[in-house]
Amino acid sequence: MKVLVIGLGGVTNGGKTTLAEKLKNMLPNCDIISQDDFFKPESEVETDERGFKLYDVLDALYMDEMVTSIRNWMKSPASSGVVTEEPQNTCDNLKNVYILIVEGFLLYNYEPLNELWNRRYFLTLPYEECKRRRSTRVYQPADTPGYFDGHVWPMYLKYKNEMEENASMQVVYLDGTKSQEELLSYVYSDIIEELNKLRE
């Protein structure tokens, strides 16, 4: 049995969840873990001097729990409730391969996670498009006025710069303004290539 752990990270509202769900439907034995499931409760998230809840930082998440969840999945993916029905057109030789897609906005800035990836993808968006998309979403708790410019976008740039400065990290950057079909087609082909390498 082989496992492939794929990171699907990137900017808020970049299309990570949609892409992950579509990939899951196309790939054999595929499961998703979402970073959003590891947010601390609002009462434990720090507030800065402007009154902004600091959600877009590693401290707002139970990162150790997330790493444990991924490791547990890697130990026994078959028992994680993965649907092992074969999607159409999947070759028989992929039956003993299990794929985990981990999607979230802060995946590559936490060292214990970086030991786990087979492939890293990172969705980007220009500032204006990201802000436009974010304004159409309803969050719990809701974004306060100025929150995007005061916290969300600066933190995205900070962590993206950190990631880019880490020369040893191989990341495939994806343009989040491209159509969902185009992104899906590219990432799917890339993962299939990775699966073929696993089999060799």
TrEMBL record:
<keyword id="KW-0067">ATP-binding</keyword>
<dbReference type="GO" id="GO:0050262">
    <property type="term" value="F:ribosylnicotinamide kinase activity"/>
</dbReference>
<keyword id="KW-0662">Pyridine nucleotide biosynthesis</keyword>
<dbReference type="Pfam" id="PF13238">
    <property type="entry name" value="AAA_18"/>
</dbReference>
<dbReference type="GO" id="GO:0005829">
    <property type="term" value="C:cytosol"/>
</dbReference>
<protein>
    <submittedName>
        <fullName>NRK1 kinase</fullName>
    </submittedName>
</protein>
<dbReference type="GO" id="GO:0019674">
    <property type="term" value="P:NAD+ metabolic process"/>
</dbReference>
<keyword id="KW-0479">Metal-binding</keyword>
<comment type="pathway">
    <text>Cofactor biosynthesis; NAD(+) biosynthesis.</text>
</comment>
<keyword id="KW-0418">Kinase</keyword>
<dbReference type="GO" id="GO:0046872">
    <property type="term" value="F:metal ion binding"/>
</dbReference>
<keyword id="KW-0808">Transferase</keyword>
<comment type="similarity">
    <text>Belongs to the uridine kinase family. NRK subfamily.</text>
</comment>
<dbReference type="GO" id="GO:0061769">
    <property type="term" value="F:nicotinate riboside kinase activity"/>
</dbReference>
<keyword id="KW-0547">Nucleotide-binding</keyword>
<dbReference type="InterPro" id="IPR027417">
    <property type="entry name" value="P-loop_NTPase"/>
</dbReference>
<dbReference type="GO" id="GO:0019363">
    <property type="term" value="P:pyridine nucleotide biosynthetic process"/>
</dbReference>
<keyword id="KW-0460">Magnesium</keyword>
<dbReference type="GO" id="GO:0005524">
    <property type="term" value="F:ATP binding"/>
</dbReference>
